[in-house]
Amino acid sequence: MSLYPQSQAYSQAPYPAHGYGQPVPPPAAYHYPPPPVQPVFHVDPSIFRRDYMTRLNELTINSRPVIQSLSMIAQDFTRYAEIVVQCIETHIRRVPAWMKLPAFYLLDAISKNVYDPYARYFTPVVVQLFLETYEQVDQDTRRKMEEMLLTWRTGAPNGRELFGVVPQVAIERQIWSGDQTTASSSRHPSTSTGISAGQVLSELDFVLGQRERALQSNSYDKTAQNHVAVLQQLRKLVQAGVSQPELSQILNQLRALAPPAAVSSQPSPPPAAIPSYSQPPFAAPVPAAYPGPADHVTHPAQVQSPQSPYPSTFDGLKHEPVELPALTSQTLPTPTAAPAASAAPPLVVNNITNLYNALLKAGVVSASATPTGAGATAKAEEATENVDPARAAAREHRKKVLSQKVKLTSTDINKQRSEIVHFLYQRLPTQCKQCGIRFPEGSTAKKNMEDHMDMHFRQNRKAGQAVGRGHSRSWFVSVEDWTHDGAIDGKGKGRANGSRLVTSSAAQAAETAQREAELRAMFVVVPPGDEAKSISCPICKEPLKSEFMEDDEEWVWQNAVRKDDKIYHATCHAEALASKTSLAVRLRNEVSSRSRSLTPERRMRTTPPRVAIPLDGGAKVPGSPSGSPARSSTKRKAEDDETSGERTPPTKKLAAEPA
Amino acid sequence: MSGRQHAEEPQSEAASAGARSREWVLEPETEYRFELDPGTSLIIKLVCGHAEIFGAELAEGKPYAFGSECKGAVYTWQGCTLEVIGQPSTEYISEETPMSAYANVHMALERMRVRALRVVHGSPPSSNEESESDGDPMPPRVLVLGPENSGKTTVCKILTNYAVRMGQGWSPMFVNVDPSEGGWAMPGAISAASLDSPIQSSSPASTLGSTATSAPMHISSNSLVPITYWYGHAETRRNPLLLDRLIRNLGENVAERLDNDAEGRASGIIIDTPSSFAASSAANDHRQTLIKACVDAFGINVILVVGHEKLNVEMQRAYGNRITVVKIPKSGGVVELDAGYRERVRKYQMHNYMYGEVIEAPAGLGAGYLQAGEQTPDLTHRLAPSSSQVAFGDLTIYRIGEETMAPTSALPIGAARVVSEMQPLLVDPGQPGSALYNAVLALLAPPNPDESERYDEEVLDLPVIGFLVVTQLDIPNRRMTILTPSQGSLTGRTAIMGSLEWQE
C-alpha cells in the first residue's frame, strides 16, 4: 500500500516541469513519457506535430522559459514552420480565453525573433485570429494585446510592419475604429474618422512602458526621468479628455517618439520611424537608416545619426519635431549660448519636452506643473522603488551569509558544515535550461532572467547567421579600455556581449561601408518645376546630382536629405550630425560622475562607438569622402598612448626597486 | 599514459551505434572522475538531480563534451544520475572529496564580500553579527599556493564559480600568474580577467575559459577580455626579476580597474600561482620574492595553501601576523601529470588561441552537444587565423635579457653583468641563430608616442594585445611569414620573443 505512491512519486521526481494537471488530455501523459528534452531527434512531421502540441499545452501562463523554449524549437525546425503555425493557431482557438495571451506572446516571439519564414506563414491567419481573440478576452488582456499590436508596427527586422502594412492596418482599424471596445473615459466621443482617446491612451501607455523600462535599466538617466514624468502627465490629460485635434497631435508626436525606444527594448536592428497610416505607404525602397516619411509632407525626415550609441537618450538628435521653430536653430550648430555642460540636457530632452510645450501652447496643459518638477518627483519615487529591492536582497543575503559561522581557520574549514547547498541551489529556484545558470526569486531577478534568455536567443541567431563568415580570436584591449571596462559595464551588464570592445576590424569596415551605402541610397524627390534648378549642399558646397528614378517616374536628388527646407548631402549631414553626437557624448560624460578627473577628450575615448582597433590603423572605406572614422581612430590611439605613457614611468620606478 | 585501460562496465546499457553509453548513479557528496586519452572525447549528460563540474553547474539533459586529454570530475551535493558516452581511460566514483572544506572556504570569503559591500553601500552594521569584525572589512584577496599536482587551479576555479553563483552579481577578478599555464592567453603569459559567469571545463586548452573572439558566445567566461603581460617562458626560474616586474604591473592595472568599480572590488581577487612558488629547493631562492610581489601587488589578505604542511608553516611565519594563512586539503582526484602531458597541453593552448578547438563527439553521436556550455561549437569554436608575409623591418623584435644567463652568484666576485636580465635586446631576424623560426612572439600595445616620455625598458611595461608565430623565415629576401589570430597590419609594431615555440 504505502510502497506504491512512494515509488510513483519517485519516478516522477526528475520531471517536475511537465505538468500533469493541465486541461489537455491527461491520459496522454501516461501513454507517452514526458517529451524528450532534446528536440534534436524529432524527424517525422507527425511526431513533431504531436510533440509541439504537447509542449504548447504547457503554455498555460505567461512563462518566459516556456515561450523561449517553444520559439527555439520553432527556430530549429523552420522546415516544419507550417506545422508550428498550425499548432499555434489551433491552440489559440481552442484554449479558454485566459490562456490565449501567452500563446499570442509565443506567436509574437517567433515572428519577431525568427521572422523568416514564420512571419510570412502567420500573416494570412493573424488578422482573424487577433480579432477573434480580442473579442473574447477581458479588458486587461485587451490592453496587453494592444500593446503587442503596437510593437508589430516596427517588429520586422527591417523596422517595418511585422506582418505587413495591410494586416496591421486591418487590425488597428477594427479595434480602434469605434469606441465600443476602448476605454470609455473620454468625454468627447470619437467620430467615425477620428482618433479615439482609447487608442491614444494605449499608445501612450506603450511609450510610457518603454520609457519606464529604460529608466529601470538606467535609473540615473535624467532624460528618461523627464520623459516618464511628461508622459504620465499627458496620460492624465488624455484621461480627463481633450479635443480631437489635440488627440491627433499627441498621437502623431507619440508615433514619432516610439521607434528609438523600441530599439532599446528589442534585439532587432534599429527600426525605422513609423510611417503615418493616414497616408499611402511609401512605396520606394527605404534603407533601414532612413526614418521614413514623417507625418508632415513638408519636412519629411531627418537623418538618423548612424553612429549614435544611445538610441533611447538621444532621440532629440534624430527626431526633432520640426514644426517648432525654436528648435530649428539647434539642428546643426552646436549650442554656444549656454555653458557647455549645462547645454547637454536640453539637447537630449527636447523631444518629449517639445511635445509638452506644444500642448502648453495650445492651452491644453497648465503651466503650473513644470516637467522638471514632475521629473524630480518621479526621480525620487523611482529611486526608492528601484533601489530598495536590490538593496533589500543584498541585505537579506548578507544576513544569511553572516549567520554562517565559518572562520578562515584550518579547524573551521575542515569541521564546519555550511549550508552551501542552500546558497547554491535552493535560494536560486529558477534555472536557465540552456546553460544551468540560476536566478533568485523576485522581480529584479526575473528581469535578469528574461534578459539572459534573450541573450541566448540573440547569440543563437547570430551564430546561425554567421555561418561561413569565419571567426577569429580578437586582439586584446588597451590598458585604458581594460581598466575602465568595469566602471562602464557596471555590474557586468555589457559583459554578455563582451566582444563589443573588440569587434574585428573587418566587421568594422563592413559596417562603415554599409552605413555609407545606406546614406548614399537616400534621396529627395525634386519638387515639380525645380528639375532644372541646380542646388548645392550647404555643408560641402558641392552641387547635388539629380537623377530620374525609373521606378517612381520622378526626378530625385541622390545622396540627399531634406532638413529644415534645405537639401544636404546625406553623407555630409550624417557626418555633421555625428560630430555633434560626439560632442553630446562628451558633454554627457562631463555631467556623469567619474572619480578620475580626465579631460573631456579622454573620456570620449572610453565611450562607444568604438572605432577600429588601433592595430589596423583605421577603417578603410574606399572612396569614403568623410574619412572621419580613420581620423578619430588615430586620434584616440594617440590619446591612449599618451595616458599609458603618463602611467608607466611610476611603474618603472616601482619595479626597479627589488634587485 | 595511453596504456591504461580500466575495464569498468557499470550498468552498461545497450550501446547505441558504437558509442558506449552507460549510467552512473551518484550518491550525495560524491564525484565521478574521468581521464581521457589523446584523441578521445566524452559526453556527459545529467539525467536527473544536480551536479557541477569544478563549481559550474550542469544543465539537466544537455550533453556536455570533453576532449584534449581532459581530466575532470562531476561533483554532486544532492546526488544525481549521469549518462556517459565515450571511452575514458579511467573513470570511477569517489566518496572522498575536499568539497565541503572548499565550500567552507567559500562561505568564509563570502562573509568578507558582503561585509565589504556593506561598506560600499554605506549600510549600517545590522546586528551583533558585525561585532566580530575588525573595523575595516576588506574584500577577499586570495593567493592560492601549492606544490605541483595539488589542484591549485581547480581550487581557484571552484572558489570563483561559487562566487559568481551566489546570485549577488559578484564579478571576482581571476588572476593567473602561472606562466606555464597561460590561462586564457598563451603559455608564457600572465593575465587577469573579471568573471561574471561560471568558468566551464571541457578541455585543458581552455581551463580558465576563453578570451573573446568575433563569434557570439553564450557564456561570458568564453569571451573574456583580459589584461596580459608576456613573460615568455614556462619556468619561473628563467627570469624571476622580469616576472616580478610583470606581476607588479599586472597588480597596478587590477588596482586601477577596481578603483573605478566599487562593487567589483567587493567581489575580491583570486590568484592562481605556479607550483614553483611552493617548491622549496635551493635553486628556487627567487620564490619568496615572487610571493612577496604577489602579496604587495594585489594587497593579499588570505593565503590558501593546498595540502602542503611545510609551506603552510613557512607562510604562517612570514605573513601570519597580517594575513590569514590557511591550509586546505588537497583532492584525491588530482592526477599526477608528467612533463610530456604538460608539453602537450601547452600545444593545445597555442592551437586553441589561433584555431580554436572543436571537440569531435564520440563516434555515432550527431551534433547538438555543448562544448564549454556553448550550444553551437562547430559554428563558434572554429577560428581562422591569418597568415601573412612581412618584411623584417616591419616588426621590431626584442628578447629580454640574455638567452642563457648564469645566476649572479656564479659570476666572479666583483664582476658585473654585461647584459642585465631586464635589458631588451634587439633581435635581428636576418642573423642565423636568431631562433625566430617557430617562435611565439607577443605583440605589444603601442609605446608612448611622446618621444620624451619613453625610456629604455618601456617594452617591459607594455601589455600584450596578441600573439604571433613565425612560421617561415626568408633571410635572403628579408621577409618572414607570420601567423596572427586575426587580420591587421603589424607595421611599426614591437614584439617580444621568449623561449616558447610552436609548430603544427
TrEMBL record, chain A:
Gene3D superfamilies noted in UniProt: 1.25.40.90
Bias (Polar residues) ranges: 301-311
Amino acid composition bias (Basic and acidic residues), ranges on this chain: 588-604
Domain CID: 44-179
GO cellular component terms attached to this protein's record: cytoplasm; mRNA cleavage factor complex
SMART domains in UniProt: RPR (SM00582)
Top-level taxon of origin: Eukaryota
BP terms from Gene Ontology: mRNA 3'-end processing; termination of RNA polymerase II transcription
Membrane-spanning residues: none
GO molecular function: mRNA binding; RNA polymerase II complex binding
PROSITE patterns found in the cross-reference section: CID
Disordered: annotated segments: 285-318, 375-398, 588-659
Stated name of the protein: CID domain-containing protein
Lineage: Eukaryota, Fungi, Dikarya, Basidiomycota, Agaricomycotina
Automatic annotation (TrEMBL), chain B:
Compartments where located: Nucleus
Spans annotated as Disordered: 1-22, 120-141
Residues binding ATP, per UniProt: E31, K71, N149, S150, G151, K152, T153, T154
Domain Clp1 C-terminal intervals: 383-504
One Pfam family recorded for the sequence: CLP1_N
Annotated signal sequence range: none
Domain Clp1 P-loop: 146-356
Gene Ontology biological process: mRNA 3'-end processing; tRNA splicing, via endonucleolytic cleavage and ligation
Residue ranges of every copy of the Clp1 N-terminal domain listed in the record: 26-116
Superkingdom of origin organism: Eukaryota
A cellular component term, taken from the record's GO annotations: mRNA cleavage factor complex
An example molecular function term from Gene Ontology annotations: polynucleotide 5'-hydroxyl-kinase activity
InterPro entries: Clp1, Clp1/Grc3, Clp1_C, Clp1_C_sf, Clp1_N, Clp1_N_sf, CLP1_P, P-loop_NTPase
Gene3D superfamilies: Clp1, DNA binding domain, P-loop containing nucleotide triphosphate hydrolases, Pre-mRNA cleavage complex subunit Clp1, C-terminal domain
Annotated keywords: ATP-binding, mRNA processing, Nucleotide-binding, Nucleus
Summary of the function given for this chain in its UniProt record: Required for endonucleolytic cleavage during polyadenylation-dependent pre-mRNA 3'-end formation.
Entry-linked HAMAP family: Clp1
Protein family membership: Belongs to the Clp1 family. Clp1 subfamily.
Subunit structure: Component of a pre-mRNA cleavage factor complex. Interacts directly with PCF11.
Name of this chain's protein: Polynucleotide 5'-hydroxyl-kinase GRC3
